[in-house]
Amino acid sequence: MRDHGPEVSGPRRHPSAPILALGIALLLVGACIPPPADGAGESPTTSLQPTTVAVTTPSATAVPAGPSAPPSFVRPTPTPLPTFLSYVVKAGDTLDSIARAHGTTARSIAFWNRSTYPSLDPDSSAYAPDRIAIGWVLLLVPDIEIDEDQTFS
């Protein structure tokens, strides 16, 4: 009997196994190569030309990639109407002194209070802006003046 050397255990390889492995490797590499920019040309598996890949490095001003908050729509809030301030008339007050203290005019205060105190109606013949009484509650809007040319209904 002839001795063939030490017995090798394990699976036997087919003689074409290295060629098959090379073919699979080429298919995998070809699948990783992007197609030409114009969309025409050969499929990636038939062309093995070198590809240039641009490499970018992050800079200090780069925005990190990742999910961002979706834009939200918020309805604008309307500008609030002027808020009236209640002022209680004290001894020694005049419409002019009250108006100066609140950044408005005596005529504006009279206009705002004309329905409560008829003597303050600028359009009335009984208009008497200097006739105010202690304890009257006057409504006024600080830092706002009535436009004399504006028509009110």
**Low-confidence parts, pLDDT < 50 over ≥5 residues?**
none
**End-to-end distance, in Å?**
129 Å
The biggest beta sheet reads: 2 strands, antiparallel
Strand order of the largest sheet: 1-2
Please state the average pLDDT score: 76
- Integer-rounded radius of gyration: 46 Å
Helices and strands, in N-to-C order?
A: HEHHE
Helix content: 10-25%
Number of helices: 3
Got a strand count?
2
Tell the overall outline: rod-shaped
Structural class: mainly alpha
How big a fraction of the residues is strand?
5-15%
Summarize the structure.
Helix content is 20%, strand content 5%.
Which helices and strands, and how do they pair?
Elements: H1 17-32, E1 85-88, H2 95-102, H3 106-112, E2 137-140
Antiparallel strand pairs: 1-2
Helix pairs in contact: 2-3
Mind explaining what this structure looks like?
This protein has helices at about 15-30, 95-100, 105-110; strands at about 85-90, 135-140. Strands 1-2 form a two-stranded antiparallel ribbon. Helix content is about 20%, strand content about 5%. It has three helices and two strands, in the order H-E-H-H-E. The mean pLDDT is about 75. The chain starts with 16 loop residues before the first helix and ends in a 13-residue tail after the last strand.
Notable traits:
single chain, 153 residues, mainly alpha, two-stranded antiparallel sheet, 3 helices, 2 strands
